[in-house]
Amino acid sequence: MTVALPQGNLAESWGISQDGTAYNFSIQPKAVWHDGEPVTSDDVAFTVNYLRSDELPLPEDLRALWKQVEVKILDEKTLQFHLPEPFAPFLDYLSFGVLPKHLLEGVSPAQLVDAEFNLKPVGTGPYRFDHLISEQGQVKGVVFSAFKDYYLNRPFIDEIVFRYYSDPKAALTAYQQGEVLASAGFQTISCLKCLIRQVSTCTQDVYPNSP
To answer: What is the DSSP string of 123-175?
Structure first.
């Protein structure tokens, strides 16, 4: 049986107390937001406060969990989560996206949905938001550019473009015409049959039957 071990992202390292109630985390020392500001323990604590809010549409059991967890900031890049009792799957609950306190402080959880931040997000990942693709006043896609200061080295692909389509048929047509390199969400029978025929044709071209 293969055992999946947790992999760090923003967390460079972590440790768990012997009684299973304290989790210490160290943030990647070179981690910065896409605007150049450092990612700090304050950002994580700020995000946890959002997760506790009754104003966000979160599952009630998730909100209840975070209301019981105490967050202690040990220094700029180190923090501790303290649980009232041992909870084995706690690491699974630490996969939430961290929010930038310096940009959202003063924005209530209820205001977050309509905040400008949602149209011009700032993150910490390998790709930063570049711009929206708009046509006739409607958002048709979004462009992400490689972030040169990403803490795990700059990605090799310079740009990724996501395009939105009104229905699966339009997305399939764009894929067939080479407008996009990959697509997802083909859930209609007609689209799936079309894709199967296309894959079958390509396989026959690459591996023709022997005479």
So the answer is: --SSEEEEEEEEETTEEEEEEEEE-TT-TT---S--EEEEE--SSHHHHHHHH
